[in-house]
Amino acid sequence: MQGTAQRCEGLPELRSMPIDEALEQLYEVNGYIAIWQQEERLQSLQEELLELATDGLEPREYALAFADPPEDVCAELRVTGTYLHALEHLSRGRLDPEDHEPMWHPKDYPPPERPTVAELGRYGLADMSRAFDRARPTLPQYVELRRAYRQMDREPVIYIAFPEGPSIKPGATDQRLPQLAQRLMLEGFLPWEDPSAGPLTDPITSVAEPVRAQPLSYDSQLQQAVRAFQVAHGLQSDGIVGRQTVAALNVTPQERRLQLLINLERLRWLEARRDEHVLLVNSAGSTAVILQGNNVRWASRVQSGTADRATPLMVSRINRVTLNPSWTVPPTIFRKDKLPQIRSNPAYFAERDLQVLDYQGNRLNPADIDWHTPQGVLLRQPPGPENPLGALVFRFENPFAVFLHDTPSQSLFERAARNVSSGCVRVEQATELADYLFDNLDASERERIRELQASGKTHEIRVRSGPQVILGYWTVQVMEDGSLRYLPDPYDMDEALAKALSAALQED
């Protein structure tokens, strides 16, 4: 079979295994008998390939050159190659993530157990739909995002651009308020009978004939609708129609569709990387969740890295928790943040619980240091309520000095956009996360940990069989009620991925 495959032209390449090896394994299971001579099976394959459109994949990439059973060996293998190619894209992503949004992982990190493309193909020998069902990600975010994507294609959205202008604040009047009300009605944030809508025309005719009405007062009903719109678009729900809200109103349905499409691709990558037990962090939405299979075991708001100090994409595993951590100021924060403050404020150290140490850990007198050219110096803050790491740090192997941790900056969790850290992930529900990680310990061990925590001193607690941790990135979040939350793109990654997917289609 391998020799025959090598003589046939037009066979696709697979990323996960050589195509001739995959063909050999599949046909061996089938007793080296042609797979596609059954018209019913071939028809079922064609139906499943068309269904890939609901996953944001392009069915024409997998179009078969004929509808009848293939007449020669190479035609047979080309159909099988297309079949395996589609299963690989569905289960592992259309693009290779290492070429576009690579994730760091430890060198000895074992990949999650996943069926090979050939093993997925075997399911189709008995039931074609089962092969695609097994390949399709079961990650809850993917399932719900695919549902929303499919619904978006079925229900065309009427789009009316919203004019730019001064910010509209509660109680104000503005000529654009009728158009604002109409946009919110079209998107379901305001019912048609709402009196805030004013004298509006029919939504279909209003596309061609813009609404012209007397300015309305920006009353409480319209403000409530604006706040709901802001929440759904990852914006601060202040009810002010400012620059960011106007920009969100002017994202076209085609752009939203593309946003869903590229995030379906990201979630395919994520599904191929995740273990059964995983802590997922979304740096774009600043949320975290622990999944056991597809069941949520813990969830929290988090604070992620800023655009210029982005939280890295990575895969690792939680292996220990630090109780009452001290904080050694990282080099970047020391250089960019602390040194300018120290130089401009002679009383800087007197006002803060911050120690100056040499690299051996010996205390130094801050007055003896030339802060314009400091050498061999580091800053450390001991444990305490003002320590930036809070009471708990969750550690995992990585070269970026990044970890999850508690924080005294609790007020920042109320922000819609929480990309405010220097790369680490600040966790709102840190105590609950620690309780979850220690849940499998016996009562005496948990009591000992409570005593160590109460001592105020730093202690390291090893975590046995800790969850995999993935620091990921996706810009559409499906909420618990099934609604979509469109997120900002804080690291400006969406455009590059959209271009890459478009280029891949053009190449084919």
What does this protein look like?
The chain is of the alpha+beta class and 508 residues long. It has 17 helices and 17 strands. An eight-stranded mixed beta barrel has the order 3-4-5-13-11-10-6-15. β3 and β4 form a beta hairpin. The longest helix has 21 residues. About 4% of the residues have low confidence.
Q: Layout of helices and strands, plus pairs?
A:
Elements: H1 2-7, H2 19-29, H3 39-51, H4 73-92, H5 97-100, H6 117-126, H7 128-135, H8 140-154, E1 173-174, H9 177-186, H10 203-208, E2 216-217, H11 220-232, H12 243-249, H13 253-273, E3 277-282, E4 287-292, E5 295-305, E6 314-323, E7 327-328, H14 331-344, E8 355-358, E9 377-381, E10 392-396, E11 404-405, E12 419-421, E13 425-427, H15 430-437, H16 443-455, E14 459-462, E15 468-472, E16 476-478, E17 484-486, H17 494-507
Parallel strand pairs: 3-15, 5-12, 11-13
Antiparallel strand pairs: 1-2, 3-4, 4-5, 5-13, 6-10, 6-14, 6-15, 7-9, 8-9, 10-11, 16-17
Helix pairs in contact: 2-6, 4-6, 4-7, 4-13, 6-7, 8-13, 13-17
